[in-house]
Amino acid sequence: MRFKRVIPVLAVCLIVLPSVAGAELKIGYIDSDEILAKHKPFQEGEKEVQRYRMELEKEFKKRQNELEKMTETYERQALLLSEKRKQEEQRAILQKQEDLQRYLSEISAPQDGKLAKKSQEVLAPIIRGVNTVVQRLAKESGFDFVFNSSTLAYANETHDLTVKVLEELQKEMEAETKQSDRSGR
What is the pTM (predicted TM-score) of this model? Predict the structure, then answer.
């Protein structure tokens, strides 16, 4: 799997390198997993998404329990019910099952489910901010390319910009805190 992601990177390098053979190419990389793991706003965002997931799971379990109770009640009383009443109860159980399945789809659809939307709403702005810092740092330092280390088979550690990106993110957070302190006074 990791090998498949390396091939596009190699293809880009093979296309770009001959065209800039006379110029010195400056390439760096970052470990985005490490950056996100150590970036406090991202950690807080993940916690918020996790809390929301737990709320959705709680609601799902509640609905699931209601269906189980409904089914158990029907099974206990089935012998005593008229055929008409049995059919009504069976339809109600079937409707509850369909509602539960629909709810599960609403919350867990990979693209437009409630959980995916919440994750996108909370985490996307943070990731955009990290990308902005990476781009700014790359431009200021004269890098032609900055790759994500997850797609690299090998990279010399001297080209790792991860720590610099984390430092810049920290500086931004401190500046925002000072700014909000000043405006709060």
Answer: 0.74
